[in-house]
Design brief:
The chain is α/β, with parallel strands linked by helices. The protein is 43% helix and 15% strand. The structure holds adenosine-5'-diphosphate and magnesium ion.
Length: 237
């Protein structure tokens, strides 16, 4: 097996922050529950992608993370699998509100994330729903009323539903900002900040982004606590 440094060099991984754990160079060393390993094997994935290999051990330690990696690098499972494990340990009642909250910029992305969560969370019996604009609220509210573990939402629609007091974020303890750069480009910063005010401060926060410009750094500094940063390849600023 390869040393952590050799693996990072080979896959152009750079890390910053204290005590960064070694990457999981294979699924076998990750120690995932068997129901999750089964889904990964069913999908036919040979090994973790570099962002998964380096972000999983960090996230599973409960630490905040900023992950900067290009589109197509496997970021979704990078945060979903540790989210499933977090859920399993949390033992929250889904009727009291979600435990895992994922914010994403568009309806298309949010539904893709939901589909991945449903596929890979099936054996773990995870319930997931998706909230996005441009569609009637009724079915989304009915899904919420049934109780869900994971909510994937665009910031605009989630904010509307919060203002209607039809969702409670008080048991969210795993918050993901996916495509943070795009969410800020689309002008969602005020909605993101309002949503985060409803989430307890005692939480784990994960930020995934393809680029690392000043605006994203600023919101990361405000919302994350002592994050470890993982970059794959050259990072555009
Ligand atoms: P990103 O969010 O970084 O753009 P995605 O999470 O959408 O990337 O993943 C891109 C594609 O790679 C998806 O089809 C996903 O199912 C697939 N994928 C994820 N993890 C792996 C893996 N370990 N090995 C092979 N394919 C993977
Ligand atoms: Mg993605």
């Amino acid at each position: 097996s390869m040393s952590a440094d050799a693996y990072r060099r080979r896959h152009e991984i750079t890390v910053s922050g204290g005590d960064v754990p070694a990457p999981f160079t294979s699924f076998e060393v990750a120690g995932f529950p068997s129901e999750i390993l089964r889904e990964v094997h069913n999908a036919g994935f040979p090994s973790p992608t570099p962002i998964q290999a380096q972000s999983w051990p960090i996230t599973l330690q409960g630490r905040d993370i900023v992950a900067v990696a290009k589109t197509g690098s496997g970021k979704t499972l990078g945060y979903l699998i540790p989210g499933f494990i977090h859920l399993k340990n949390s033992r929250n009642d889904p009727r009291m509100g979600p435990t895992v909250l994922v914010l994403a910029p568009t309806r298309e992305l949010a539904t893709q994330i939901r589909d991945e969560a449903v596929k890979f969370g099936r054996s773990s019996r995870i319930s997931c729903t998706c909230l996005y604009g441009g569609a009637p609220k009724g079915p989304q509210l009915r899904d919420l009323d049934r109780g869900v573990d994971v909510v994937v939402a665009t910031p605009g629609r989630l904010n509307d539903i919060l203002e209607m007091r039809r969702i409670n974020l008080h048991q969210v303890s795993y918050l993901v900002l996916d495509e943070a750069d795009r969410m800020l480009d689309m002008g969602f910063e005020p909605q993101i900040r309002k949503i985060v005010r409803e989430v307890p401060a005692r939480r784990q926060t994960l930020m995934f982004t393809a680029t690392w410009p000043k605006e994203v750094r600023k919101i990361a500094a405000d919302l994350l606590v002592k994050p470890i940063q993982v970059n794959i390849g050259n990072v555009d600023e």
